Amino acid sequence: MNHTKPSHVITLKRALELSEKHGYATGSFSPRYTPVILPVLRAAERCKSPAIVQISHKELLRYGITPAEFAEQFYFRMTSENITVPVVLHLDHTKELDTIAQAIEAGFTSVMIDASEKPLEENIAITREVVEYAHARGVSVEAELGMIGTTDFVETDKDEELYTDPQEAKYFVERTGVDALAVSCGTAHGVYMVREPKIDYARLQAIRALTPVHLVLHGGSGVPAEMMAKAIALPGGGVSKVNIATDLELAFLGGLGREERLTNEECQMLDPELLEKGRAAVESAVADKIEHFLGSKGKAVHFKA
Fold this sequence. Notes:
The protein is α/β, with parallel strands linked by helices. It is built from 12 helices and 10 strands. It has helices spanning 12-22, 37-46, 57-63, 67-80, 97-106, 120-135, 166-176, 201-210, 225-232, 246-256, 264-268, 272-294, and strands spanning 26-29, 51-56, 87-94, 110-113, 140-145, 149-150, 180-183, 188-189, 214-217, 239-244. This is Class II fructose-bisphosphate aldolase. It comes from Cohnella pontilimi.
């Protein structure tokens, strides 16, 4: 299903070049349910901010969605809502090459191959294969080096961390040609209930000093805004992309007045009035992140199609 992409549906590489140049981070928001794509786009448009709409392989499975269904809803909303800000459609954490191929076919403009649990050389080989495949089709690639912990196991299987080694990062990027690198430097997927979030700024700076690749921070939910602002503003280029998933789901479920997550099908069957409440809560959460956390409000002005 090849969409004629609007000129402002862009690759991750293009989005992060703008982030870095103009000193903000682009939020990578996981709606998790197709009806929740709408409030993410509305918030980005309202705030005149670039945005990334993403879903991971595990989320596709857990919520019962195909890459094609997600992409179809994304493109439909981009058009029906007259979205004018630059947006990336991104496949987050994925280990399956088949899912990556399906996403690219469906119109995703960026994919993430996560072979971070493999030995370094194997991670490089798998990542390079994806880079060759995706780049040939005009699609950006994000990879991961080190291991990012988790608190909710939606995106990853394990909760142990292995911080990214700066020298390895240099070697990895040179060998793979990736456009963006998710680094492990203290944040975790999910919401922090036990340990305090922390960011190893010295490590981030050391990685950035050795490689020009755009840096991604997974586990943006629950990190204090001033901590994130410092990571974004590091001299020579700090973090350009921040993933936010759990905070959106909590906002959505809070808006619905429930705690149990739904399947995508259940979400589509919600009473329209109730769904609107959930959507309003997500739109408000995304707008708040854009303005107070990412520093990307008003930054869409820098994009020229």
